[in-house]
């Protein structure tokens, strides 16, 4: 690569990496570490650091794979200008001519390889049993969009995202910190899993026409926008219904705090039901869904830390 190309390449790399969406993995890692401290009294900043670096690299690799697959399938090229939003349409590095397909593929290979090496390091020197969780997350991130599996094209994308950023990331972090997995961690991971799946679901609405044309059969395409709003409501309901169960099982009433995000979620569902076909107005629901996810993560961390004082 010519020296004069490096500014273009790094601009494209960071647009592809999109650090602002790392909140999707930062929240469950932070909650997992907080739960390990609150319930087990165990916390290692060093191993949390390496866990986060490994997961962030997988996120970049997953973004890169998804970017070139969606470009080659035509999905990203079919998105009309008036349907492009900050929450949908991919990272736009190929369609906007910032990176080539070969450069995006190279980024995918290198970031996933580095993530794999970090995973091996954690398994060998910290917690051997995390191998299976790490391997599952690693493989799912690759086959999420890569042929011939293309999970997100076959209706398994929402489930994969919920499973990966919920149970796998949170319980994996907890395991690395505490050397075991608690039932409280599993319940908290389900809450975040439902919510992050909902973030993906609402972000699929603006891409509906392009996904339909490109045969990307996610659940918005399968159900249609109007009926998909019912699934949107159901995922919120499942997350909030799990909070009292977590509070009861843990004996910690502070785990009811995530319910304070309910009014935001209720408003988001109302917006989605009215504006599911009006992208400029629907964006409010996209933003509010992210807010619910962030607020729920923060309140779970508060509850986890408070568990330390209940013991």
Automatic annotation (TrEMBL):
<protein>
    <submittedName>
        <fullName>1,4-dihydroxy-2-naphthoate octaprenyltransferase</fullName>
        <ecNumber>2.5.1.74</ecNumber>
    </submittedName>
</protein>
<keyword id="KW-0474">Menaquinone biosynthesis</keyword>
<keyword id="KW-0812">Transmembrane</keyword>
<feature type="transmembrane region" description="Helical">
    <location>
        <begin position="292"/>
        <end position="310"/>
    </location>
</feature>
<comment type="pathway">
    <text>Quinol/quinone metabolism; menaquinone biosynthesis.</text>
</comment>
<feature type="transmembrane region" description="Helical">
    <location>
        <begin position="229"/>
        <end position="249"/>
    </location>
</feature>
<dbReference type="GO" id="GO:0042371">
    <property type="term" value="P:vitamin K biosynthetic process"/>
</dbReference>
<dbReference type="GO" id="GO:0009234">
    <property type="term" value="P:menaquinone biosynthetic process"/>
</dbReference>
<feature type="transmembrane region" description="Helical">
    <location>
        <begin position="45"/>
        <end position="61"/>
    </location>
</feature>
<feature type="transmembrane region" description="Helical">
    <location>
        <begin position="21"/>
        <end position="39"/>
    </location>
</feature>
<dbReference type="InterPro" id="IPR044878">
    <property type="entry name" value="UbiA_sf"/>
</dbReference>
<keyword id="KW-1133">Transmembrane helix</keyword>
<dbReference type="InterPro" id="IPR026046">
    <property type="entry name" value="UBIAD1"/>
</dbReference>
<dbReference type="InterPro" id="IPR000537">
    <property type="entry name" value="UbiA_prenyltransferase"/>
</dbReference>
<keyword id="KW-0808">Transferase</keyword>
<feature type="transmembrane region" description="Helical">
    <location>
        <begin position="185"/>
        <end position="208"/>
    </location>
</feature>
<dbReference type="GO" id="GO:0046428">
    <property type="term" value="F:1,4-dihydroxy-2-naphthoate polyprenyltransferase activity"/>
</dbReference>
<keyword id="KW-0472">Membrane</keyword>
<dbReference type="Pfam" id="PF01040">
    <property type="entry name" value="UbiA"/>
</dbReference>
<feature type="transmembrane region" description="Helical">
    <location>
        <begin position="159"/>
        <end position="179"/>
    </location>
</feature>
<dbReference type="GO" id="GO:0016020">
    <property type="term" value="C:membrane"/>
</dbReference>
<feature type="transmembrane region" description="Helical">
    <location>
        <begin position="130"/>
        <end position="147"/>
    </location>
</feature>
<feature type="transmembrane region" description="Helical">
    <location>
        <begin position="107"/>
        <end position="124"/>
    </location>
</feature>
């Amino acid at each position: 690569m010519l020296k004069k190309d490096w500014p273009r390449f790094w601009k494209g790399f960071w647009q592809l990496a999109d650090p602002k969406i790392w909140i999707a993995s930062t929240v469950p890692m932070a909650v997992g570490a907080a739960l390990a401290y609150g319930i087990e009294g165990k916390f290692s900043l060093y191993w949390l650091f390496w866990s986060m670096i490994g997961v962030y690299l997988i996120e970049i690799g997953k973004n890169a794979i998804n970017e070139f697959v969606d470009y080659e399938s035509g999905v990203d090229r079919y998105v009309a200008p008036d349907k492009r939003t900050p929450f949908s349409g991919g990272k736009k590095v190929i369609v906007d001519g910032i990176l080539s397909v070969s450069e995006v593929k190279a980024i995918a290979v290198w970031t996933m390889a580095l993530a794999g090496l970090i995973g091996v390091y954690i398994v060998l020197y910290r917690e051997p049993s995390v191998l299976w969780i790490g391997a599952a997350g690693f493989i799912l991130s690759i086959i999420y969009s890569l042929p011939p599996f293309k999970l997100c094209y076959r209706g398994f994308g929402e489930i994969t995202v919920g499973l990966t950023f919920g149970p796998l990331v949170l319980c994996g972090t907890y395991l690395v910190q505490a050397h075991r997995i608690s039932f409280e961690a599993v319940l908290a991971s389900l809450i975040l899993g439902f919510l992050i799946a909902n973030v993906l679901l609402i972000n699929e609405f603006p891409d509906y026409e392009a996904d339909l044309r490109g045969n990307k059969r996610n659940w918005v395409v399968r159900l249609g926008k109007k009926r998909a709003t019912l699934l949107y409501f159901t995922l919120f309901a499942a997350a909030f219904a799990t909070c009292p169960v977590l509070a009861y099982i843990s004996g910690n009433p502070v785990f009811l705090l995530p319910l304070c995000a309910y009014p935001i979620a209720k408003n988001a569902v109302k917006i989605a039901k009215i504006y599911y076909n009006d992208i400029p107005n629907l964006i409010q629901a996209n933003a509010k869904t992210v807010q619910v996810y962030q607020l729920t993560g923060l309140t779970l961390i508060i509850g986890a830390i408070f568990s330390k004082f209940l013991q």
